[in-house]
Amino acid sequence: MIQIKDLTITHRKDLRTLVSDFQLVLQDGDKAVIIGEEGDGKSTLLQWIYDPGRIAGYAEAKGIRILGNEKTAFLPQELEPEEKEKTVYEFFSEEDAFFLQSPGELGRMAKDFGVESEFYYRDQRMGALSGGEKIKAQLMRILMGKPDILLLDEPSNDVDMDTLLLLQKLICGWKKIVLFVSHDEALITHTANMVIHLEQIRRKTQSRYTVKHLCYEEYVRAREDLFETQARQASNERKEKRKRDEKYQRILQSVHHAQNSVSRQDPHSAALLKKKMHSVKAIGRRFEKLDTGMAELPDREEAIGFRIDAEYRIPAGKTVLDYSLDVLKSPDGEKILAENIRLVVRGPEKICIIGKNGAGKTTLIRDIARTFADRKDLKVEYMPQSYEDSLDMEQTPVDYLDSQGSREEQTRIRTYLGTLKFTPEEMEHPIGGLSGGQKAKLFLLKMSMSHADLLILDEPTRNLSPLSGPVIRKMLKEFGGAIISVSHDRKYIEEVCSRVLQLTETGLKEVSMPLEEVPYGDTFHVRRE
Length: 529
Prior knowledge:
Layout: E1 2-11, E2 17-26, E3 31-35, H1 42-50, E4 59-66, E5 72-75, H2 81-84, H3 88-93, H4 103-112, H5 131-144, E6 149-153, H6 161-173, E7 177-181, H7 185-191, E8 194-201, E9 206-212, H8 216-261, H9 267-291, E10 319-329, E11 336-346, E12 350-354, H10 361-370, E13 380-383, H11 397-401, H12 407-419, H13 424-427, H14 436-450, E14 454-458, H15 469-478, E15 482-486, H16 490-496, E16 499-504, E17 507-511
Parallel strand pairs: 3-7, 3-8, 5-6, 6-7, 12-15, 12-16, 13-14, 14-15
Antiparallel strand pairs: 1-2, 1-4, 8-9, 10-11, 16-17
Organism: Bilifractor porci
Pfam family, one: ABC_tran
Domain ABC transporter: 2-225, 322-528
């Protein structure tokens, strides 16, 4: 069991409250996902639950944490620097249970995780492994220790489709408690039976949390229904208030006019009017008290709204790309990743390239983007996986988006940024201080303002909240130009992309749609005593 009582976490730098008076109880069988926008405290909360000391350097926490006698394992979002320097064998050797495993047990685990039995004994640095291999190594070491509780921080980041499905099976089949942070809507939908939602509302001046024992899709529907009910109630109450106030003002003005018109020779009428005015003002004070109990207009953090120009459509017969590459090499030029690559894109096609970790997807799409440098017939926008490759970290969001320098343009940009929940202060802060999700939204907003013919996107949804996902996918689906992208986001692939290509050692291969997924409830077999 996990029990959290009266937890408040405050960020030391900006004194922002991440969670306030937080309460939580998790029992065996709970598979709880923590969702929210970047910077809302998801990882901080998860780390505090594992070990309060992990956040002591940047946040202050007050609350009670009860974990009982159950063994807890933690998968961090990023390996510690010293862990990256260890060899794979050294990494496994730090788990005492590694040496208690029989060759048969190690072989079965390697097979479950889709790696060779020799994987445990590699002398390769952990930091040099692909994203999927790092996750697999950490999960394998964790499972050797036979934990009861799994705490997983963004386990689906930077992993390929096979690793995602493996992770999905593991969470679905876990008999004890799983608490995880994820942006991956498909993973959440297939695994979570409980949602913990952290928000920063009222222009990020107030924290709010919601805990519901519902699967993700049920939670989203219930949340939408509640939002619509609250919005309707607040709207109706404000309409009634306007009618009531108009009637009240007419009565007040009528009595006031009568007081000004009464003759001084009629003191009796003047006294009656004074008494009536006193009664009318008393009613006004009562109305003011009633107004304090009015339903508030609901505020939700993920309520973003913008669109890429959907009216323009690139002609169906226009050749957007005719690309050939005999050999794709790793960035250092030492390894051949793929050969005989051919890609033709015509009209408003929306292409997604998938493949195993280390297959060269990012290297390929970066090379494709370079081929458009001298093209004059197409307006192209490129969103790299590493935002620092294209963003000036010293620029402000307003400066980055401002191509004209006019006051009208800056006003328009601030309005757009406001719809993305940027505060006025964040609009003027250096981009380097923004969260990954905010940087992703900046790229997408730039694209929406650019009237592009082609978008080249490397993992476009990787830092976006699952609640923002539907808006972004709808926007990209309605885009009238072409898209060439790399992604492992199954929702994005199914809802946006018209063609899926897998990068293999022998080139790009067409993949049938929809992608095959592991059914909910499949179990991942881990031997437990």
